[in-house]
Each structure stands twice: as C-alpha cells, then as structure tokens.
TrEMBL record:
Protein name: Protein farnesyltransferase subunit beta
Biased composition regions of type Basic and acidic residues, renumbered to the chain: 7-22
Keywords: Metal-binding, Prenyltransferase, Repeat, Transferase, Zinc
InterPro entries in the record: FTB (IPR026872), PGGT1B-like (IPR045089), Prenyltrans (IPR001330), Terpenoid_cyclase/PrenylTrfase (IPR008930)
C-alpha cells in the first residue's frame, strides 16, 4: 500500500504534529482532479449565506460578540462588494440608520447602540458607511462627527506613539491600523496624530520577522509622579502573527507620505524587511496544504490568512521591497501572449497565487454556502470576507502607481504651505494611486470566479474608496 503524502517532520509526535497530519489528510481529499480546474465559486450560495447570517445576527450563546455588530455588517457588505453585488436603496438606508445608532456622543463608534467608542468598531462602521453611505441629510457621511472623533483619537494616544483601543483599554496594533484607515478615509490626518506612530510600529516586529500585537511601553506609568523612561528599543510583546503583521505593514504603508515629509535626519530606521519577507513566504502552506496560508509558525493553514498574509505581498511591492508588479508605461496587453508576459513579470517564486486560489475554492468554500477556515469547520461571515478578499488579491495585481500619484499632485492649483496641508495632500494622493494593470489579472478556473479588486490597505473597492475620500477631502480638517 502506498504511503499517504504528508509534510516532512521529525519523528517526535506531539499534539501539533497530530493536528497537522489530520489537516493534511482532510485537505488532500479536497485536491481538484486537475490543478487548473478548481471547484467553481458558488457566488449565489455565499450571498444567501451572508444574508441569512446578517438577519439571524449572533446566536444568543455568542453574547460576547455583541460588540461586533459593525464588524458583521462590514464583513457582509464588503463581501457583497468584492462579489460585485450592490444593495438596493431601501436596504442601504436601513444599513446607514443602523450604523449611525452606533456613533458615540463623544466621538467614534461602539460595537452596538450605547456602547463605548472603540477603534475596531469605528473602522468597521466607517468602512461600512463608505460602502452604503452618501452625502447629505440621512446619508450617514455628513452625520459622522469628525471633530469629536478626532478628539477621541487624541484622547487615547500615548506619548510613545501607541494608541489604546478605547478608554481604559489595552494597546493593540490592530487599533493603530483601524485609526489610520479611518483618519485617511475621513481626512483627519495631522502631524500631531501621527507623531511617534512609526516608532511604535517598528517596535512590534519580532525576531521571526512578523509582528506581534504590541510592544512594551516606552514609558512605565507610576502611581505618583512622572512616568519612568524605560530602555529603548521596546521589546515586542508576544508572538508574530499574520493578523498583526497585516495591520503593522498596512499602517507602515499608510505612514509613507508622513515619513517622506519628515526631515531626512529623522528617517533613521525602518522595518526589517528581510526577516519580514522570509517569514511571510514561510507562512504559505505546501501543496499538501493546497497553498493556503497559516497565521503563525507551527500552526495550521486557515482561509482568513489568505488576506491577512497573502495581502501583505501587494504592500511589500508598493514599498519597493519585492519586484513592482505594475508598470507605469503604456504597454499593450490585449493579447493572450502579452498577458502571459505581464503575468511572468510577477515574482511567482515568492508566493503561489494559483495555489492560494485553489485552497480558497476547493477547501474554504462550504458546500452549503459561505467560506471557512478549513474543512470540516462551519462557514462564518468573517472567513467569508477574508477568503474572498484573499481570492481577489491573488487574482489581481493592484500596485501603487507613481504616474497616477503625479497626476493627482499636479492637479492641485496652489502648492501647499503648512506641513499639515502637505501631509493631507500627500496621504490623499498616496491612497488613491493604487491601480490595476490592465489585462494582468489571472483567474483560476471559470471567469465567474473573478472577484472585484480591493484596495490593498483599506479592503474596500477602489470605487468606494474614491467616493468617500473625495467627499471628505473637501471638508475642513479637525483642529
Ligand atoms: C489567533 O487566533 C488570533 C490572533 C492572535 C489575532 C488575529 C488578528 C487578526 C486576524 C487581525 C484582525 C484585524 C483587524 C483590523 C481587527 P487562533 O489561535 O485561533 O488562530 P491561529 O492558530 O491561526 O493563530
Ligand atoms: Zn481564520
């Protein structure tokens, strides 16, 4: 009898190796008969699943999830958007009214009506509004209290560049990411808000190359008197993880215009991209694991890391760390041959885009609708969005175009004077310069498997990103 295929490992059996073997055994059963013919994407079943899940809300045994109402709505709406489905005006209005009931009178959004403001639901609520909202009375956008939200952001900022996720709560780099995205979408960026943030992000990188949730505070609070200055650099707290790594790298990407405006003497250190790239590459599972991604060393592949880890490669490319996938010249790409050439430009040796699509289509799709971590787990809305967003990032080359950035910058009539104005212009053009090179998307299987492209930093479609940013860019800046 032939030996079952499995990943090489030493002969020391542990709970971890048992779980790995069980997972591989299950995944092998999901291998498609031909690598280029994966299971088709069941869009209708996934839409039905998302609607069912949204209407049912969280089951009563999940009362701890009550603070995640904005997340449930964002996962649902953004899944619709990447699948190319728009809501009708009545449902949009229902969604807007629901979201606005989560706004806290002192700024920011809570996880439900009457709940304290928190950075994570604030991001989810604002992104959901980017999808369904509109300007004018009742449209949600102009009901966001930006002055109060800015005050809330400054009130949870620590002197070492970290942010608490809420009053009296902990520091977590997910909060930094959520705050930065919100501040970009709503035109709320100031040098004061960003001061020290790059140093905090750098301090979360671990010896493995990925990022942990936080780092030891630079200042230790004292019950009496001034805080004590601790040794610098601050050691990261905890293990490198795909979720924190995406949040850190996306935050670093958003901070690029701010770093570029700093005095050159201040641009001393950066992230360790060599270890980061090695770690990210090592998170992709072997062909036995169908090319899915794991979130940390010695753990199992899981569909949601298709976005959290797979999505990091587009960010690295925008930072010039790996070969730029996009080209700013006017090359033609209408024939299959030229498309193949363009595809060959992409450094496939770092991560296998086709394999990731195979994992999502063959293993992460639940036969009853919705997507999941891995078989035989049930589907949920969180995994549905991050599997679909991961599928999108594996299919499309969305890259930061310097040509597009130049066009936006040249369209401004007056050269900016203050650092504040320069910052907001630079962040606006940076955020809107992500673009997709024509004809380079590579869809595994049928064309119906195609997802819309999603913004590599915000995880919103380009249309939704441009709509909300253009609206708020005209507004005054909170002071
Ligand atoms: C471990 O789960 C999960 C974490 C330590 C945190 C994950 C963080 C994210 C996914 C980022 C979320 C981002 C935002 C913007 C809120 P586990 O032990 O169940 O999974 P594992 O075995 O795969 O590590
Ligand atoms: Zn997961």
């Amino acid at each position: 009898m032939s030996q079952p295929r499995r990943s090489p490992h030493d002969s020391y059996e542990t709970e971890t190796t048992d779980h790995q073997t069980e997972t591989e055994t299950i995944l092998l059963k999901h291998l498609p008969l031909s690598p280029d013919l994966p299971s088709p994407l069941q869009k209708d079943a996934h839409l039905q699943f998302l609607i069912r899940n949204l209407i049912q809300g969280f089951p009563s045994r999940y009362t701890s999830q009550d603070a995640s109402q904005p997340w449930l709505l964002y996962w649902t709406l953004q899944s619709f958007s990447v699948m190319g489905v728009a809501l009708d005006p009545d449902n949009k209005q229902k969604a807007i009214d629901t979201i606005m009931a989560w706004q806290h009178p002192d700024g920011g959004f809570g996880g439900g009506p009457g709940q304290a403001a928190h950075l994570l639901p604030t991001y989810a609520a604002v992104c959901a509004l980017a999808i369904v909202g509109r300007p004018g009375p009742g449209g949600g956008w102009d009901q966001i209290d930006r002055e109060k939200m800015y005050e809330f952001f400054m009130s949870i900022k620590l002197s070492d560049g970290a942010f608490l996720v809420a009053h009296h709560a902990e520091v977590d780099v997910r909060g930094t990411y959520c705050l930065l995205v919100t501040a970009h979408l709503l035109n709320m960026l100031t040098p004061e808000l960003l001061e020290g943030v790059p140093a905090f992000i750098m301090s979360c990188q671990t010896y493995e190359g990925g990022f942990s949730s936080a780092s030891q505070p630079y200042f230790s609070p004292e019950p009496e008197g001034p805080p004590t200055l601790l040794d610098s650099p601050r050691p990261p707290l905890g293990e490198a993880h795909g979720g924190y790594t995406f949040c850190s790298l996306a935050s670093w990407t958003m901070l690029q215009p701010y770093l570029a405006l700093q005095k050159p003497s201040l641009q001393r250190s950066s992230l360790n991209f060599k270890t980061l790239l090695r770690w990210l590459v090592q998170m992709q599972g072997s062909e036995i694991e169908l090319g899915g991604f794991k979130g940390r060393t010695n753990k199992l592949v899981d569909g949601c890391y298709s976005w959290w880890v797979g999505g990091c490669f587009a960010l690295l490319s925008s930072l010039g760390i790996i070969g730029a996938h996009g080209r700013d010249d006017n090359h033609e790409s209408s024939t299959t041959h030229q498309e193949d050439e363009a595809w060959d430009d992409i450094d496939d040796s770092l991560w296998d885009r086709a394999a990731l699509q195979r994992y999502i289509l063959c293993a992460a799709q639940h036969p009853a609708g919705g997507l999941r971590d891995k078989p035989p787990k049930p589907a949920d809305s969180y995994h549905t969005l991050y599997c679909l967003a991961g599928l999108s990032s594996a299919q499309h080359n969305v890259f930061l175009s310097s040509t597009r950035q130049d066009v936006i910058v040249r369209s401004w009539k007056t050269p900016p004077e203050s650092m504040h104005e320069r910052l907001r212009q630079a962040c606006f053009s940076h955020s809107l310069s992500w673009t997709e090179e024509e004809g380079t998307s590579r869809i595994l299987g049928a064309q119906n498997n195609r997802m819309n492209a999603t913004h590599p930093v915000f995880n919103l479609t380009m249309t939704h990103t441009e709509g909300i940013m253009a609206h708020f860019y005209k507004q005054t800046i909170p002071s």
